[in-house]
Specification:
The chain is of the alpha/beta class. It is about 30% helix and about 35% strand. It has five helices and six strands, in the order αβαββαβααββ. It starts with a helix and ends with a strand.
Length: about 160
């Protein structure tokens, strides 16, 4: 959120966790040039916004914590608030992520085929599915993620 704001974008950050939003607001007080940000705790399956609000929706490892039963609803909501031609960017933990990372938080680890089913929304075209790995300073693998980019198309 802060990087995008510093690049000149207006940023509205949502999370289902009051604690996560509190951390963002606290950090905002220490960042320079982020007056273009606002944060709110809300149900990401029911955003308090009109249709076609955003050019870009970014999921920064939030959806991987949404229960399977609600994931489709959350994806449809992201689609609803995107303008036509808008992009959805997500990174989500993938299978093979270290057990210690999964033990620290409840998280869904996705196989590649999960993306086609669980992230599928009518009117969204998946453009990129790629994998990335993060390592610590000693080169030890710490986490693996999927990078997913979708575009809202006209129906």
């Amino acid at each position: 959120a802060f990087f995008l704001a510093k690049e000149g974008f207006n940023v509205l950050g949502f999370d289902g966790s009051e604690a996560a939003i509190a951390r963002c607001i606290k950090r905002k007080g220490h960042e320079i040039g982020v007056d273009r940000t606002a944060f709110a705790a809300t149900d990401i399956c029911s955003l308090p916004l009109p249709d076609s609000t955003f050019d870009l929706v970014v999921d920064a490892a939030c959806l991987q914590h949404v229960p399977d039963a609600d994931l489709g609803k959350a994806m449809r909501e992201a689609h609803r608030v995107l303008k036509p031609g808008g992009r959805f960017f997500s990174y989500a933990m993938r299978v093979g992520t270290s057990q210690s990372v999964r033990d620290r938080m409840p998280v869904r680890a996705l196989h590649r085929y999960d993306i086609g089913h669980k992230y599928a929304v009518e009117g969204m075209m998946t453009e990129i599915v790629d994998a990335t790995e993060f390592t610590d300073n000693n080169g030890n693998l710490t986490v693996r993620h999927w990078i997913i980019v979708q575009r809202k198309v006209a129906l």
